[in-house]
Amino acid sequence: MRKGEIIEIIISELDLYIIDKVRELRNLREISQTALSQYMELADGFISKVENPKERAKYSIRHLNLLPKILKVSWEELLPAKPLKNDLVRATYKKKSRADVKRGEQLYELIKKVPLSEDEIKKYNKGLLD
């Protein structure tokens, strides 16, 4: 994928929220992706895969129990204050040039997030929509 290329994924809005929140907290504490993976006793590239929209890796319930301890935050700081409005969303990302990415920034910029319709969710759940 080259600079400026677009990637579109379907993802749970809650997964997207948690991934973004962990990235934000990780960057505030100046913890690299590799270091966070190691603190969690996971493969060195795990956090990189979670934060890359081209990958399918996500945080599990077990990870959500480990993260507050490592990031030194309360459980509530990882989760939204109330249930999110949408179940699944279509997230569109634009890839930046590695040279343009500053420390703590992500390589993929979220440029659009659109909720899936009820029909799209049904098709997605049946494996008919990517």
Kindly describe this structure.
It is a single chain. With 130 residues, the protein is α+β, with helices and mostly antiparallel strands. It has six helices and three strands, in the order E-H-H-H-H-H-E-E-H. The protein is globular and about 40 Å long. The model has no long low-confidence stretch (mean pLDDT 92).
Quick description:
The chain has helices at about 15-30, 35-40, 45-50, 60-70, 75-80, 120-125, and strands at about 5-10, 90-95, 110-115.
Which class best fits the helix and strand makeup?
alpha+beta
Trace the largest sheet across and list its strands.
1-2-3
Number of strands: 3
Low-confidence stretches: none
Radius of gyration: 15 Å
List the helices and strands and how they pair.
Elements (H helix, E strand, L loop, with lengths): L5 E7 H16 L4 H7 L6 H6 L9 H11 L3 H4 L9 E8 L12 E8 L2 H8 L5
Antiparallel strand pairs: 1-2, 2-3
Q: Key terms for this structure?
A:
single chain; 130 residues; alpha+beta; 3 strands; 6 helices
